[in-house]
Write a structure and sequence with these properties.
Its EC number is 5.6.2.4. One of its GO terms (biological process) is recombinational repair. The chain is α/β, with parallel strands linked by helices and 1220 residues long. It has 48 helices and 31 strands. The strands form 8 sheets. The chain has an 8-stranded mixed beta sheet, sandwiched between helices.
Amino acid sequence: MRMERKWTPAQKSAIDIRDCNVLVSAAAGSGKTAVLVERIISMITDPDKNIDIDRLVVVTFTKAAAAQMKDKIRKALDSMLDENPGDVNLLRQITLLNNAQITTIDSFCLWIIRNHFPEVNLDPGFRIMDEGEKKLIENDVLEDVLEEFYAEADEEFFNLVDAFGMGRDDSGLVSIIDKIYRFSRSNPWIDEWFDECMLVYDDETYDNPAIKELYDSIKNALLDYRDKYNRLVDICSEPAGPAAYTGALQSDLLGINEMINSQDFGELGRRIRIFSFEALSRKKDAGADPDIKEYVKGQRKLFKDYIGRLNDKIFLKDDEGIFADMQGAGIQIRTLLKVAKVYAKRVSEVKREKGIIDFNDMEHLALSILVKKEDGKLVYTETADKLANRFEEILIDEYQDSNQLQEVILNAVSKTRLSGENNNIYMVGDVKQSIYKFRLACPELFIEKYDTYGETGDNVRIELQKNFRSRENVLECANDVFSHIMNKNFSGIGYDESVRLNAGFPYPEYSDSNYGDEANKSTDVILISSENEEEATTRELEADRLAKLIEGIVSSGVNVYDADENIYRPAEYRDIVILTRSVTGWADTFADALMDRGIPAYTDSSTGYFSVREIQVILSMLTIVDNPVQEISLAAAMMSYFGGFTAAELGMVRKLGREHADKNTHNNLYEHLKAVAVLGGAGKMQESDVKQLSGKCALFLAKLTEYRDKSSVESLYDLCWEMIYDSGYYDYVGTMPAGAQRQANLNVLLERAAGYGKSSYSGLFNFLRYIERLKKFDEDFAEGAASLDNENLVRIMSIHKSKGLEFPIVILAGAHKSINFMDATAPVLVDQNLGIAVDYVDLERRTKTPTIIKGAMARRIVRESIAEEERLLYVAMTRAREKLIITGVVKDADKTLDKYMGRAEQLAADGMLSFADSENIKNYLDMIMPVCLMDSDKLKGSFKVMVDAGEDSWVDAFEAGEMAGEANAVRIGELADENMEAVSYPLLDELPEYVPDDNAARRMKLTVSQLKAMQADDDSEENAYMDESVKTALKKEACDETNSIIPKFISGEEVQLAANERGSAYHRVMECLDYSVSVNLDGVKADINRMLETGKMNELQVKSVNPWDINTFVQSDTGRRVANAVNCGSVRREQPFVFEYEGQLIQGIIDLYFEEDGEFVLVDYKTDRVMKGEAGEKELVRRYAIQLDYYAKALTQLTGKKVKEKIIYSFALGKGLSVY
């Protein structure tokens, strides 16, 4: 019986809507596949419409997705038939399902071709070649084409080779032509696109599309800088601001406005070239905070650098020089296109001759069957009209990954083009998950429809926002990040309320009965510190930390929800996935680190096939069957399953072979092998070990000879079959770790051998040549698909590979890895709209200059690359069902936090990542950190930023500070006592001396912060997924995080002290502060200088303290009360204590307390980083309320006097906070 599903209103609308074009914007986890299946079922079972399933075209992204969709439809129909056994229509639809066009775009095009091949003069026996054969044919053809151009001795071609060749060969030119050819084939009309590439060089006006785009992008950035400057001017007008800088900033602002008001690109360039920065005033400004001055200077430097880059990269020449370079580059482009056209035509001819096509040919041939272009207009063929009348609806899944060519094909078979009243294209996708730019996907198609379709009419947009996969916090953290970084002006995609993810899956509440874990609620961002910046080293460090983290997750019993059982259960390895931007260089390192700790792991990779051990062995065997004198392959084969030689035995074969081989033969391993193989039969043997080795050589040589004989009469496939199966090798690898995967890899090799036998190449020699050239071209076979669903192991995969999948716990690793902008710096840039761009190479002067076209295109590529990385991050973050952990390696966690705190405040002020700031994104941390460090009142998700605290633990970056100080209470107290003579404290005598009883030695002495940590709510511990030893370490070890009222990101000063030492420096200043001198900023500076001169502080400590912070305290209400108490002699500072509480000895240090109206006021200094505002205040009170309660208890117990008020003074906030 078919279960009736409850659909959301949006899903129901997407299922039921008819007679219009529909764009379903389906957010991650919103059930789009279920909606698509239900729509199809409702259409083919609607008695009023009577639509057969073979009258629908359903295009999916992969064959697997198509097969799954067919399977779901079949099961639904079978279930309905069980309820209605006599339903003729259901029986009919089940029968027609096998031939229904539920398939990929390639397969749909192939169906068109097979049914209409005469219309494109295609041999009916055509064959589809694989990527390897395709690459070999293209390479051979290009070599022939270039030889022909060399033979023609064309001067412009020789100039092209000189300009773009690689020294003594033309490999650089080969790569460029190949790149242009591959890109051109994503266009519907290849020849037309080639011609349009020249138009941009013929247009020497400011209306040139490339120049106009560059002009607009620069103006967008200038608008952002104007806003930043206006804020800087406001900062200068504040009491502590550098008012003397205002004049220079206003002068800059005037210049920025003039640039913005430029009427065209030429005027903009002239204004930027003549723009100069007025020197900042050196006039002494006694009231200005030096750190604010540094901040203003730093922000101004960012704009200086931007203008410098424009002058160096874009406006380095005047208008005449710009257009002259365009002319010169245009000549080179024309020749380049000439070669590319000949190459494209020749490849097509060769494939026709051989009766083969590739996947891209499928689309172009289908297009030729359906559409012609005459005088710039599309003319649809009779075949197209017949197909359009046949199909009732065109349904396109993953529409965000379509390209222009596919768009034209599917439009050609739709009724939409026939009549405006029969709109029948139904598109489903999520442009935020468009991550296949490298496959030339065109997300702009989705964006254009998204922006123009409405809620009603002929073109309707429907939003599916409900996510049925992830917990609310995972979704809200994603919402927080992308609502702040997806700037529509920059990336073309906005993120507003209409696309926010909303939780739709009803996870049961956590409770003791279901073993749920509250700690899973936060999204953790872990910063791993490394002094070594080499990528390989940082990868190994991160891999090691992740292995320990995963070990802790599983061993400590972190719980995940099991929907099938409706219970919470302990997490297993299978619940965890590690996602990386690229698996190359990462996956193996991570897998090794996991397996070193006994954690089973699997790397899901589509590359690296040729490097896996089981394939290397077979390739080595095939190589020596073809040519046994290949020494490396022979040695590898001998030491493999097929030979069984040890390294020592191989060395002995070498030694004996040199002694006994025929002196007239070549001195190689094969001759040595033959010589040793016959030693036993020649009566020359004396030692049993040598005789045994001789027999081993003879057996291996016999097997090799057998394979060599068979290779001349058997097919490649049969030879490989015998090596893999008949030899027992297949069963052997099955007994190894990941045996099923290894066997699947061998099966892939067999399939490729069978396919190669049908190709235009043949024979073992050519197959090996084929493999070697694939390696050279960085082509690869995908690893075999082995079912690992039931394997309890950690999966390591790329973000691309994870699309469409989900996991209870997701670890996004390598968040520090730089975005790859190499496409923007390549010798030749290619773009769908702007064409082709190169540097102008002046062969006479031997100079190379970036053209304005290349500058425009490079900026576009950078922008598109960043936008795609944002979408990749969206995919990664939305794979997690319950827990998301993000890790990255940084050189200095403290400096990194300072940097991102500054960006967080900037982001909070802007509300959205600006165009200018978006251009400066370098990695995922740049996207994530400023958001998760914002004021929590502005966020709906819960982030926890953690820093490395050694090999086995992490600590909260914002709670670590004061605990470390408490752990060192005795040492600090002793240090304070050494300097007690500096200030007189009459109240000291009132504290009774503590004398422990006889059992004290057996009691545990705890610091206040340790006791605080132990009494915290277990359900809200930050590190609940770590084992108990790690938790204990966290309670004992932490590092002080100091932050002045003006964050260190403003000052830009190099940090000289460790975080805990800076915290101690602040406390030291407050301990020794002379309130009779420190009455204003100058007095504070003088007082701190006195501490330096008298040896109470050293130079590094003094440099780490911001005098402005101390002056802010002095001027505060808390500071004035303390000063009055000092005058009355009723202040005690840095007071150590030990007291008994509930059978435990508690020790600590009270920063300051004073008597007021017969009762005590307790003051505790905090240097934690917190965001400004009410949220930061609440957070500090939450963190330290328990600690201050113990201080008050200690003070009351030891003095007998009541504590009437507890105050936290925050240097970050510049104010005192009362704790009740």
